[in-house]
Amino acid sequence: VPIPAPDLKTCVRTTEDMKGLNCCPPSTEIINFELPEVKTLRTRPAAHTVDQKYIENYKTAIELMKNLPEDDPRNFWNQAQVHCAYCEGAYYYASNDCDGTKEEIQVHSSWLFYPFHRWYLYFYERILAKLIKDPNFALPFWNWDGKDGMYLPPIFEEGRSSSPLFDHYRNAKHRKEKFVLDLNYNCTDSGKTDEEIKEDNLCTMHRQMYSASTGKDLRLFFGHPYRKGDKPSPGAGNIERIPHNNVHIWTGDPDWVREDMGNLYSAARDPIFFAHHANVDRMWYLWKKELHCKDISQDDWLKAEFLFYNENKQLVRVNVEQSLDTDKLGYKYDDDVDIEWMSNKY
Ligand code: C2O
């Protein structure tokens, strides 16, 4: 049986790494998601390749989102709380209707990881697009799987605190221009040269993607099955473990319990979160498109549900199945970006 959508009325304060935060959204009438009518696909660009016009547009959109009233569920802070609520023990569902047993909803370390984050970015992008009245707006992705993208993308640092894309809580050392991102980072910087780190990163990407592409064990890619009644976090897939987790830790400020990016409750308070996750989502896209792999076909996965506020402040019920085809959601990733880790060399 699939994991049901949370009941927002029973949302509680967080219980995990950071206890007692109130990340609960308001509860209101729920509508069911319907696929949009798609005329042209929006293209998500690599963050290090965007032009000035794109940057200005993106900044304006984030600025408008930050300036929305505090009680607007589309407000930047409230959007960050969506992640907090789904990750830190705020949501429960009745796992047994007879004895009142409840189980937590957790979207990490299981097969809900890819679809939850795809939906999260989808609505976030629709909100930004609506705010700047540009239906073609598409989020940038942090191209950490390519040598030219293995840095903190400069657009998030440019202009420092005067920019809505800036965040104070990032690792001071790693935010320096041209400091190479180590996809295997585990709280200490390696003594390797920049070129060695980049080559290692490409080997890591090759291994993580190809070892999960044989079709024999879909858990390697998606993470372990997580059904109604199961304990949360049964196990993560390859990319979630490495490099997804490492990039979070690498970006967060070690002096502030790794806020923002290095901790689940705070990660989405940094606008860079959405560029990081666009690339995680792109790995799912490439796994199907370039490595010709197929999604899980079990209903326990396909019918799992989530709730999100959309660009019109409506609370929408979505399921995993509706997220599988990015064409139907109306977006794609820039296909001109070279995928270096696909080379046999690695
Ligand atoms: Cu929901 Cu990258 O974490």
From TrEMBL:
Transmembrane segments: none
Domain Tyrosinase copper-binding: 270-281
GO molecular-function term, one example from the UniProt record: metal ion binding
Cofactor: Cu(2+)
Alphabetic keyword roster: Copper, Disulfide bond, Metal-binding, Oxidoreductase, Thioether bond
Family under the similarity heading: Belongs to the tyrosinase family.
Protein name per the record: Tyrosinase copper-binding domain-containing protein
Taxonomic placement: Eukaryota, Viridiplantae, Streptophyta, Embryophyta, Tracheophyta
